[in-house]
């Protein structure tokens, strides 16, 4: 079993409640387009907007909390009520194999198993306190896009 991170899928920004639409307009002025939007419930509780960067497979993901119990609301609070980095996501071709290999390597994974994420993807999160030896200090997501599209 091996870990095969193929590329950076997206960089996620935690957005204060009520500011997402204004941010979308600024990204549009920068020449970027929204490629996907949905509300994600379960443990995430966010309004998710994916913004494609040019014609690439790279995205910005804007996450607006749907309520105070959303983990994103807590991230916004920690950043003094301002938009801030939420996480960086790596893309993989086989999420279960990657999950199992990372567990075997002693990487601190937040989720008990890969789970459904936004855009039809399967995801899991790596804790900022990444291993017993070192903390990478950033929340990472591992994403396997749905087979029919990248987003």
What does this structure look like?
The protein is of the alpha+beta class and 151 residues long. It has a single domain (7-144), classed as Roll (2,3-Dihydroxybiphenyl 1,2-Dioxygenase, domain 1), CATH 3.10.180.10. Helices cover 19% and strands 33% of the residues. It has three helices and eight strands. It has helices at 20-29, 71-78, 95-104, and strands at 7-14, 33-40, 46-52, 59-65, 84-91, 115-116, 122-126, 140-144. An eight-stranded mixed beta sheet has the order 2-3-4-1-5-8-7-6. Strand 2 and strand 3 form a beta hairpin. The model has no long low-confidence stretch (mean pLDDT 93).
Topology of helices and strands:
Elements: E1 7-14, H1 20-29, E2 33-40, E3 46-52, E4 59-65, H2 71-78, E5 84-91, H3 95-104, E6 115-116, E7 122-126, E8 140-144
Parallel strand pairs: 1-4, 5-8
Antiparallel strand pairs: 1-5, 2-3, 3-4, 6-7, 7-8
Briefly, what CATH class? Answer: Alpha Beta
Secondary-structure element string: EHEEEHEHEEE
Mean of residue pLDDT values: 93
Weakly predicted, low-confidence segments: none
Strand order of the biggest β-sheet: 2-3-4-1-5-8-7-6
Main sheet properties: 8 strands, mixed
Q: Give the CATH superfamily.
A: 2,3-Dihydroxybiphenyl 1,2-Dioxygenase, domain 1
Number of domains as seen in the coordinates: 1
The gross shape turns out to be globular
């Amino acid at each position: 079993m091996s870990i095969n991170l193929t590329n950076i899928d997206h960089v996620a920004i935690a957005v204060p409640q009520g500011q997402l639409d204004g941010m979308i307009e600024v990204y549009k002025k920068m020449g970027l387009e929204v490629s996907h939007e949905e509300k994600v419930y379960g443990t995430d509780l966010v309004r998710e907007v994916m913004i494609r960067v040019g014609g690439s497979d790279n995205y910005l993901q804007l996450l607006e909390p749907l309520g105070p119990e959303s983990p994103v609301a807590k991230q916004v609070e920690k950043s003094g009520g301002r938009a801030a980095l939420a996480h960086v996501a790596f893309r993989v071709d086989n999420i279960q194999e990657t999950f199992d290999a990372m567990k075997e390597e002693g990487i601190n994974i937040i989720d008990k198993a890969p789970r459904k994420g936004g855009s039809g993807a399967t995801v899991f999160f790596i804790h900022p306190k990444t291993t017993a030896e070192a903390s990478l200090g950033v929340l990472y997501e591992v994403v396997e896009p749905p087979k029919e599209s990248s987003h």
